[in-house]
Amino acid sequence: MDDRKPLVKERRENPPVMDKPLMRKTHVEKIEDGIVAALKQGGLSAKYLIDAFPDDPDDFDISKADKVALVQYTGSRYGTPEATGSNAQMRRAEFIVHVYLRRIGTPKRGLREIEQMRLALQGLVLQGTELVIIRDGLADDEDANFWNYLIEVACWVPAVPLARSPRPFISDFSKQEGA
Questions:
Q1: What is the C-alpha separation between 56 and 22, in angstroms, rounded?
Q2: Could you tell me the maximum CA-CA distance found in the chain, to the nearest angstrom?
Q3: What is the DSSP letter of 175?
Q4: Strand 129-130 and strand 125-126: pairing?
Q5: Which spans in 4-150 are helix H?
Q6: What pTM value is reported for the model?
Q7: pLDDT digits (tens, 9 = 90+) for 149-174
Q8: How far is CA 125 from its chain centroid?
Q9: Fewer C-beta neighbours within 10 Å, C or N terminus of the chain?
């Protein structure tokens, strides 16, 4: 019988009541969900806990898991607007997959699993954009119990929704004098 505690601490008995209806997911949240789904379908061991990075990291206890992959949106870099139309501005949305593998005395450090994750993500098309791998490798922090790898990915998405209506004319030429 497994008497380990769950990875996520129990929630409060009476969660706060929400006054506003839930908002639809943003483009970035949908991409993050797609990355999580791709990793889950990427042929990794069923022993992996794969999820989005927790909203409250204090509620997450990594010591109870052997293999964890957490996806985190880390920010965007914005391109300059094209000519006069700001609707053409793009941003590079960036994500990190934090991979924690318990050290079990093997010298391979999970390299095969890291490669499986990279292959599952590289060139993946999500929400109309394609992921590119920026970097992967060991994280700088040292942990006696876990190998900590980072896989950084990014994709280009519109900075302004394309469905936004065009800007109105500054002047109404039909009302000019002499017209």
A1: 19
A2: 90
A3: G
A4: antiparallel
A5: 27-40, 111-121
A6: 0.72
A7: 999 999 988 876 555 545 555 555 55
A8: 14
A9: N
